[in-house]
Design goal:
five-stranded antiparallel sheet, 108 residues, alpha+beta
């Protein structure tokens, strides 16, 4: 064996593969949430994630598997920045949320 030859690369080992029934369910959830986001774009909503985080804001866009939520002024209570809160700063904060992580979307 030549000194610059490397050992053969082993074949990749798959550690996860989505089962077909799960794939169909997740695809259905994704399509339903995309339609709901489009239907309620620019409406004020409260969003709760699977981890219990709660956000309020307006749905700006839903693209692929991500919902973009423009946080309302109440969003500043979640940020830890030096100095007093600046209300103008928080008017433009857009939070990307993964659709599959959403537990509930409520119209406010």
């Amino acid at each position: 064996m030549h000194p610059y030859d490397s050992a053969p690369t082993p074949a990749p080992t798959r550690v996860y593969h989505c089962e077909s029934d799960h794939h169909e369910t997740l695809l259905g959830v994704k399509q339903r949430l995309q339609a709901l986001c489009a239907e309620h774009a620019y409406r004020l909503v409260k969003v709760e994630t699977m981890d219990g985080d709660v956000y309020e804001g307006k749905i700006v866009l839903c693209d692929r598997s991500i919902m973009f939520l423009q946080l309302s002024n109440e969003g500043h209570s979640r940020a830890f920045l030096p100095g007093p809160p600046n209300p103008y700063f928080y008017n433009n904060v857009i939070l990307p949320l993964v659709l599959f992580d959403l537990l509930a979307i409520t119209l406010i």
